[in-house]
Structures are given as C-alpha cells and as structure tokens.
Amino acid sequence: MNAHGITIKEIANLLEISSTTVSRVLAGHARKYRISQKTEELVRETANKYNFQPNQVAQQLRLKRTNTIGLIIPDISNPFFANLARMAEQELRNKGKMILLCNTNDSTELEKETLSLITGRQVDGLLIAPVGQQGEHFKMMKGTPIVFIDRYFRELSIPYVSTHNENGAYQASKYLIKKGHTHIACIQGLMHTISNQDRVNGFLRATAEFHLPEEQVNLLGDNFSIENGYKSAKILLEQEDPPTAIFALNNQIAIGVLLAAKDLGKVIPDDFSLISFDEQPYFQLTSPPITTISQPIAQIGIEAVKMLFKLIDNEKVENQLISPELIERQSVKAI
Amino acid sequence: MNAHGITIKEIANLLEISSTTVSRVLAGHARKYRISQKTEELVRETANKYNFQPNQVAQQLRLKRTNTIGLIIPDISNPFFANLARMAEQELRNKGKMILLCNTNDSTELEKETLSLITGRQVDGLLIAPVGQQGEHFKMMKGTPIVFIDRYFRELSIPYVSTHNENGAYQASKYLIKKGHTHIACIQGLMHTISNQDRVNGFLRATAEFHLPEEQVNLLGDNFSIENGYKSAKILLEQEDPPTAIFALNNQIAIGVLLAAKDLGKVIPDDFSLISFDEQPYFQLTSPPITTISQPIAQIGIEAVKMLFKLIDNEKVENQLISPELIERQSVKAI
DNA sequence: ATGAAAGCGCTAACAC
DNA sequence: GTGTTAGCGCTTTCAT
Fold it and tell me: Which protein residues have their Cβ less than 7 angstroms from some atom of strand C?
C-alpha cells in the first residue's frame, strides 16, 4: 500500500482470492459473474477499510479512455471564457468527465504547443476557442473529436458552436437606427478574426438596408482592447462632426469609450449614444447603464458539450450559431 | 497505429530494433546510452514521419507521476478565482504540469466528492480554495501534497497562502478614520468563513484602536452576495442617524451597496463614503470610481505553486499571508 | 463461482 | 551499443 492507497492486487492477496474477482466486485459486476455473497462482502469491506480508490491512470491505459476533455481557450481570466468554462465543467462533470485547462494567451504559437502536449495525454475530446489567425495546425488532430467554441474556421470541417455575431451586430445597429441615429461609428477589433468580420458585416448590412449615407457610417479601430476603444473614441469625439452613436464591438472597447468620454467631459447618452457587444455584470453599474448585445454563453457551453459527446459517439453533428439578445439600458437616446 | 498515433513498440518493429532503444532515443537519452548516430537518426526520422507522441497515460502509470495538478475552487466564473487560475496555469505550465479544473459551487458535499474523484486520478498535487465550512474531509488526503489558497483552516496542518485579510480590513478602516469618519458600518459576508472573520477582526481592531464610540460602529450582514449588500445598505441608509461611511467586505456586497444608493437617490461620496474589499476592473468605471483593497492575486498564485512544488519535493514550507494594497479612488470623502 | 494470463504503452534494472 | 525482461494497476478473454 503506497502513498496513493491500496490496490486491487493487494486486496486480493489479503483475502487470498484472485484480483479478477476483486476487480469484478469493485466494478459492480458481482451479479453478472455470480460472485458469492460472502466473497462480495469481504471484498467490499476490505476496500472500504483501506479506502480503496481505483487507479484511474491504470484504467485509462487499459480502457483507452481517459474521461478527460481538454479545454483550450485564450484566457480564463476573460469573464466570457470563465463563464463558458464553468458551464462546460458542470455539463462534463455530470457525464463523468473532467477538464484539463489550457490558456493560449491569444498566441498561435502556444496554441500549437498546447495541442501537441494535450494529444499525448489521450484526452477523449477537445473544446477549443481557437486564437483565430490560422488553423492549419488543427488538421493534424484527425482522430480526436474537437468542437470549436466562440471562434472557428470556415474552411476547416471541424464543427463549431458560436454566437451568431452577424445577427447580433445587425440587431444593435438596427436598434440605433430605429432610435433615429443616422451618423453611426463602429469601433472594431482584430480584423482577421471571424467574430470581428461577422460583427462588421452585420453592422454594414443594417446601415445599407436603411440607406444611411455612406459618409455617415464610420468604421475604425483594429483591436479588441481598452486602448483601441479609448483611442478610437477620442478620434471620433474630437472631430468636427462627431457621430451621434458609437457601436463597440466588445466589452473592452466599450470600456475604452467610457474612459475617453470621461476624459473629454462628454456625457452619455446626451452627447452621444453607446451600445456594446458582450454583456458584462458591470455594465449595469456604470452611469448610465450600458445597452448591450448579450452572448448566449450558457447555451454555447451546453451545446458544445452535447456536440462533443455526439462526436465521441460517432454521430453526425451540425454547426450552431446562436443568436444573442439585446439588453436595453440607458446608454442610447432617441433623437 | 491506432487513432492516437504510433507507439514506441511499433517504431521498434518497423526498424527491427528493440523498443528499449527507441524509448531511449525518444527520451533524449541517446548520448547517455551511447546509441549509434545511425540508429538515433533512424528512430528520430521514423518518429517524426509518423508524428509520434509518447502516450502519457502509459508514462504516468509507469513513472507514478502524472504531471497533473488539481485545482479545486468554488467557482471559476468568479473573477478572483479566474485570475488565480490563470496565474497558476502559467506557472505550472512552465514546470511541465497541467491543471485539472474542478468547481465546487461552494458546496462542501461537492467538495468531498471532487476530492475522491481526483485522488483516483493520481494528481501530483492539489491547489484548493476550500468551501470553508468544515475541513474534516481533507484529513483523508494524507499523501497528496496540498496547498490551500485564499481560504484555509487554522486547525488543519495543511499549508496555505492567502491574503492578509485582517491587515487589509485594518488598512481600509484606518483610512476611513483618518479621513475623519467616526460613524462607520461594516457589511460582512458569510460569518463562519475565515476570510470574513479576519476582515471583521481587522475592522474592529482599527475602530478600537482609534476609540470610535461603540454605538457608532455598526456590523451587519451575513453573506457575500449582492442581495446582502443591497439589503444591508438599505437598512443603514434609511435609519435616522446613518453612518457616514460603509465598508463592504467584498465586491459583490459593494455592488449591492451601489444599487441601493442608486435606488435611494443617495450620491457617493457626498451622502456617504464607500470602500470595498476585492479590486475589480469595473470599480474604476462606476461613478464615482470606488476605493478598494486589492488582493494580491498574482502573488498568491505564484507563491502557491512554488509552495506546492516544495511540498512535492518534500521540502519544508511556511504559511504565507500576503498584505493587500489600498487603491485610492473617489468614493471616500474627507469630513 | 473463480482464476490464470495477457496486454494497454512505457521505462529501467540488468544483462552481454 | 543494444536487447531481455519485468512491471506500473487495471480489465477481460478464456478456462475450469
């Protein structure tokens, strides 16, 4: 009996029976193999007495199943991914799986490295929010079930579940237009990411559909950061004919806009209106509370896990884009 | 060559050499065992060609080391724990370990269950933020190195690294007093948790040290939730002689206070001052920005990992309480 | 109703 | 320089 507890073999020796029998009892197969009452009890007692825990590493090797799912995300300290992780963990726990957590820090290099580290660990499947620039390295993963979450690659055949970003951005833009805004600026994030592209597309579809004059539709920015939001908002608000509304493509950008407004002495929504992608708990605490497009995080988590299990069971799956919801607060004024 | 890639034995068969030699080369021991240049190259080539990844489950079983650390926390969607997880993951990755993530949802029941699930997985060590009510079940974990983070048990001999809560609360209270406040209310969280007890002690030490009249020192609340903050703040602000300053013992409580103030039309810091434990990014965006006691999350993560490695190496460790820092903003007025 | 033996993929002690 | 062999702890086929 080593540091990790007693083994099946040791129990067998103690009782002078075979390890096969012990294994059968402890695996709950006593009935199936018609093990005698007496033997069964004896085994159970001894196991309890020594607090037996099956060595899962041995099981994993033998059964070629680890009951482990890799969760590869850019950054667990981003509330969006943290919430996703929580949902996924809950769902997976119910199905007897545990999560191996890996941050990629938004680096494709780290993502590649992580991928090879984690395949060695024989995970049963992978939930990945890819960094997004380039997805060639995922092609090496044939054989491991993968579901992409939040971001994905159109050209890869790996299934995904994500927010319907185009639709969300369209909703937000249409909302501004319906409130009477005709001069709208959109501050975007990283341009080559699919979420940014889709959001921009939704924005442009709405402005086109309602025939906003082209020179009154601004698109600027290049990064999902507070700095970019701050910088871009300053440019916008300091120009001679500033937009009456700003659409921030994520919560970090919105924070930047808020800080810029504060610095310039601009009051929301009197001086300009603001709407943001990414619901965050603090958006109801700012003044004014910010109207947002809320991503369906819980649903994404639940659906992604469901999909992964189908994949593991060799069933067919279909990509899912879940439409987000507009949460109306006080940062948009009708004009 | 199954779904998970080629094995050492298969490479050996292919090259008609022994698996020992292959293992040695691939483990980087070619030099040590004076394997011939030619053999080494051959092995390397074949391994690359078939994209060999050592089966870590087999390694783990053989070496009785999983290079896996369990991280057991109440809730990954709480930014405090998410940030802690991020730091820990980073540190552990540098040392070749991965994290198995488990949420306990603040339930001692789930915590117990998790503990036995995870011991079967033969983790090399455990980083635990215990739920806190009761710690008897940790005594069963003899043999597995454990470091408690954030919360701990005085009566258990398991080492911990945490915020110096008493000191932080003392700093906050003293700050209020130095600003001229003599009528101060403290809204506390779960009373049996050690963090709450320590924070309350710090508060009481300061008020005693500066001889605040007893009837002007209020302590109320019973929970680390927004609701409790809201409810308690309402009680305080509606009484005929309300306190001039409120000390919220965590960020959730502070949010509740903010919401209550809004509902009652009270303006901070004109109507009352507010200081809160737990720095959060959105506290600089509220109006006014909130003065907080910022917990040393990064340090806790780094130190906890360091400590865990010492434990694994059978070295002595010493408990650590790291003092938090006061971040001054505009929610406290001098009177 | 129970057991012997093989094997999951890897490493290491001990040969030669 | 390389190979043989045993074994980590478990499950399972095949016997009896």
Answer: A 16-21, 24, 33-36, 38-39, 58, 61-62, 64; B 2, 4, 7-9, 19-20, 23, 26-27, 54-55, 58-59, 61-63
Whether the CB of A1 is less than 7 Å away from nucleic strand D comes out as no
A143: which residues sit within 8 A by CB, 6+ positions away? B3, B4, B5
pLDDT in tens, A174-227: 999 999 999 999 999 999 889 999 999 999 999 999 999 999 999 999 998 889
Q: Is the pLDDT of residue A132 over 80?
A: no
Comparing alpha-carbon positions, the chain A residue that sits nearest to B90 is A103
All residue ranges of chain B with pLDDT < 50 are none
pTM of this prediction exceeds 0.85 = yes
How far B96 CA lies from chain A's nearest CA (Å)? 9
CA B47 to C1' C12 (Å) is: 21
Q: Are B124 and B147 in contact (CB under 8 A)?
A: no
- The values of phi and psi at residue B231, to 5°, are -60, -50
What's at B39, amino acid-wise? T
Residue A289 preceded by cis peptide, ω within 30: no
Three-state SS for A39? helix
Strand positions, DSSP E, B229-328 = 245-248, 273-277, 291-294, 320-322, 325-327
